[in-house]
Amino acid sequence: MSKVIVEASLTKLRLDKALTQIYEGKSRSYTLKAIEEGKVLVNGKIEKPSYFLKLGDEISYEPLEEQTLNMDAKDLGLEIVYEDNDVAVVNKPKGMVVHPGAGNQEDTLVHGLLYELDDLATINGVIRPGIVHRIDKDTTGLLMIAKNDMAALALAEQLKNHSCKRRYQALVYGTFAESKGKINAPIGRDPEDRKKMAVSKTGKQAITHFTVLKRFKDFTLIECELETGRTHQIRVHMSYIGHPIVGDKVYGRRKVIGDQGQFLHAKLIGFKHPRTQEWMEFDSELPEYFKEFLKEIEAN
How far apart are CA 96 and CA 198, in angstroms? Predict the structure, then answer.
């Protein structure tokens, strides 16, 4: 175990917060797990994360054991919409996580991409080969995939400067008086639940444009275009204006309709090809469960 003696700069800090410095910038979740697994001792004893450090305390610590990931290629039946030597476009099904993470180590989109594609960009690490942006587990639709690092950097730059096009269709609760609108509300971590996002004054700028496509008795089908790409942006913004997405277990109504996840589909994506600079645009059909529910509510 490595050891450090608490000096003035660390006094009166919570143990978990101080450990983010001691562990050289590791996240708070990492330090909490280290404490939980007994990798951290204060004066030879296990202390709670909320323990306030005192001058002269001796902290003994060791790193967490790195988990090895099963990154074997798997035939998950992915629909590859387009592919060339630099980029690919994939239509992600519902219920599939984009890349491995806590609680989702296998059968991710990445595992399927390793099976379907010969090359994937490596610049984003072993866990996220080829991945330049994400959509939620229960959101369906189109994603850009980079097959080499040149393509990954170029697509990431387009995402950063908002020059690519991303349009979604969503079914939301309630009806709109207006035919279109713009939601400009910053999004950050929910202070009451760190697993969720929320509109927050301290959050990052988030802008969503929406257009009404079809009105039903108690629901509205809308198209959303992202100007920014914050985590859960459309889901948070629609809930914020009082029109949560149908089927959303996190930001929607307490009584959830359906068991397919939120009715949100990444329908269209457009970008400049990293090598040729040609504008490329791809559209996709709504998934069957989405279309069937639209028929059901239209009949009522």
Answer: 23
Amino acid at 298: E
CATH of the domain at 150: 3.30.2350.10
What tens digit of pLDDT does each residue of 166-213 get?
999 999 999 999 999 999 999 998 888 878 999 999 899 999 999 999
Do the domain assignments include residue 67?
no
Q: Which of 91, 94, 131 is nearest to 114 (CA)?
A: 131
Is the distance from CB of 211 to CB of 222 less than 8 angstroms?
yes
Among the candidates 138, 161, 184, a domain finishes at 161
**Whole-prediction pTM:** 0.76
Rounded Cα gap, residues 181 and 225, in angstroms: 11
Here the tokens at position 20 are 């983010």
Relative to beta strand 193-199, strand 187-190 is: antiparallel
Give dist(CA 267, CA 132) in Å, integer.
Answer: 17
Environment class of 216 (CB within 10 Å of its CB; exposed 0-12, middle 13-18, buried 19+): middle
Q: Are residues 278 and 293 in the same domain?
A: yes
Q: Closest Cα to residue 239, out of 167, 140, 172, 300?
A: 172
Whether 196 and 108 share a structural domain: no
- Backbone torsions φ then ψ of 255, nearest 5 degrees: -90, 110
In whole angstroms, give the CA distance from residue 259 to residue 84: 36
Tell me the C-alpha distance between 39 and 35, whole Å.
Answer: 6
Mark whether 249 and 166 lie in a shared domain: yes
Specify if 228 maps to a domain: yes
Report the half-sphere exposure of 187 (CA within 13 A, side-chain side).
Answer: 21
Domain ranges, residue 262 = 162-300
The total number of structural domains that make up the chain: 3
Q: How confident is the model at residue 67 (pLDDT cuts 50, 70, 90)?
A: low
Q: Catalytic residue numbers?
A: 136
Residues 6+ apart with CB under 8 A from 56: 5, 6
